[in-house]
Design brief:
Blueprint: H1 2-14, E1 23-26, E2 32-35, H2 38-57, H3 64-77, E3 85-87, H4 89-95, E4 102-105, E5 108-112, E6 118-123, H5 128-132, E7 139-143, E8 146-147, H6 153-160, E9 167-175, E10 181-189, E11 191-194, E12 198-202, E13 209-214, H7 221-234, E14 239-243, H8 252-260, E15 266-273, E16 278-283, E17 291-296, H9 303-313, E18 318-321, E19 329-336, E20 341-351, E21 367-368, H10 387-398
């Protein structure tokens, strides 16, 4: 029990979470130290008492490490923020896999759905997911027989990813056109996946208009986007539709680099922390003057909202579609060196150049257009039925 208690307290102190009664200072050698107060003693007494109840009454066997991990997770879940999370060593190791655009996974893009579930919004061609029969608009309800909801999306992703050549058990929920629901379990292989985050082409029937879709912001995205923009410009494009629909976000630096291409000197986005400290991310004076319209929908989140919000506020592009998801907060990772675990904590929130809050509000389009087709069917390949894209082209031609 003492070992369990020491680990819990070491964890609390290591990330400097200020429970009432904890005071942190520095000794004469400049090292951090804690001072024990009465409130801390009461906290320890409660832990001892609860542990004793378990030892004396609980029917089944258990491991001390499970109690420790449970106490950590519970501490962060009690904050009520789905983006502030404790990860055990295995989960944190998977979370720390880089976002280079290459990973061992199954080849799907997922997003939180309004129903509170994890929704498949894209299945990559020639991927294990495609082979296993996963379709866009399916819901992933379980991974490895454990249930996950929209608030657990990071944890679900960490379990779906793994070593190349291994497999993962996934439970899918599919809703047909009549509203009937069917759940089934499948086994999906993991392979190294290189995500094609940028898709571009000249728009059929339009001699001087191009289309670029960004599916997410990864390390590979900036170079791919610049190459696509150069290619379309060489082909005569004087206007570009940038499609950010179903884009769940990604790397902030990538988003800033791409947004900066189209803006002169000024603010792209600002963040504020709990103490009111403001940090501004700004664009330089150099600017590409190509005409722009931008598409967003309810699945456009985070970095997508930063880009669309900046282009809207700076009056650089008309934003078309439906209000975005509203994920406008910043998380920071804190590795715990004692055991390889870690935490992700919300530390600040985003504001557009005009000071508009993004979180739980979303970016409102300049021209609201409800899609007449499902989010899985949108895009340049379905131009004749994609009324939002048609509107973006119409507005771009007018501009």
């Amino acid at each position: 029990m003492k070992k369990v208690l020491k680990v819990i307290l070491a964890f609390v102190l290591s990330i400097t979470i200020g429970f009432t009664g904890f005071t942190l200072g520095r000794n004469s050698q400049g090292q951090s130290e804690s001072k024990v107060t009465g409130d801390e003693s009461a906290y320890i007494d409660n832990i001892n008492y609860l542990k004793a109840i378990i030892d004396q009454n609980y029917l089944f066997d258990y491991k001390d490490e499970d109690l420790v991990n449970g106490s950590y997770k519970g501490m962060f879940e009690a904050l009520g923020d789905p983006y502030t999370v404790y990860y055990n060593p295995e989960e944190f190791n998977k979370l720390m896999e880089d976002t280079s655009g290459e990973y061992a996974g199954i080849g799907v893009m997922i997003s939180a759905s309004p129903e509170g579930l994890i929704k498949v919004i894209k299945v990559f061609d020639n991927s294990p997911a495609k082979e296993a029969g996963i379709q866009e608009n399916d819901y992933i309800t379980k991974v490895k027989d454990k249930e996950y909801q929209a608030t657990d999306i990071d944890k679900a992703v960490s379990q779906i990813k793994g070593k190349e050549g291994t497999s993962v058990d996934i439970t899918l929920l599919r809703v047909d056109d009549n509203g009937d629901k069917k759940e089934r379990e499948i086994k999906v292989n993991r392979e190294n996946i290189r995500v094609e985050t940028v898709k571009s082409q000249m728009i059929d029937g339009e001699d001087d208009l191009g289309y670029i879709q960004i599916s997410e912001f990864d390390e590979v995205t900036t170079e791919d986007f610049e190459n696509a923009l150069d290619d379309l410009t060489e082909k005569g494009a004087k206007g570009i539709v940038i499609d950010l629909r179903n884009n769940p976000g990604g790397l902030l630096d990538t988003c800033l680099d791409i947004t900066d291409l189209f803006l002169d000197e000024g603010i792209i986005v600002s963040t504020k922390d709990k103490n009111g400290k403001e940090v501004k991310e700004e664009s330089d004076a150099e600017m590409n003057n190509v005409g722009l319209t931008v598409l967003i929908n309810e699945n456009s989140a985070s970095a997508s909202e930063i880009m669309s919000g900046a282009l809207k506020d700076r009056k650089r592009a008309k934003i078309i579609g439906t209000t975005s998801f509203g994920k406008g907060i910043v998380q920071k990772l804190f590795p715990i060196s004692t055991d390889g675990s870690g935490v992700k904590i919300t530390v600040s929130e985003y504001f557009t150049p005009n000071g508009t809050k993004i979180h739980e509000k979303g970016v409102k389009p300049d021209i609201e257009v409800e899609s007449k087709i499902s989010s899985a069917d949108i895009g340049i390949d379905n131009l004749e039925n994609d009324n939002q894209l048609q509107k973006a082209i119409e507005v771009l031609k007018e501009e």
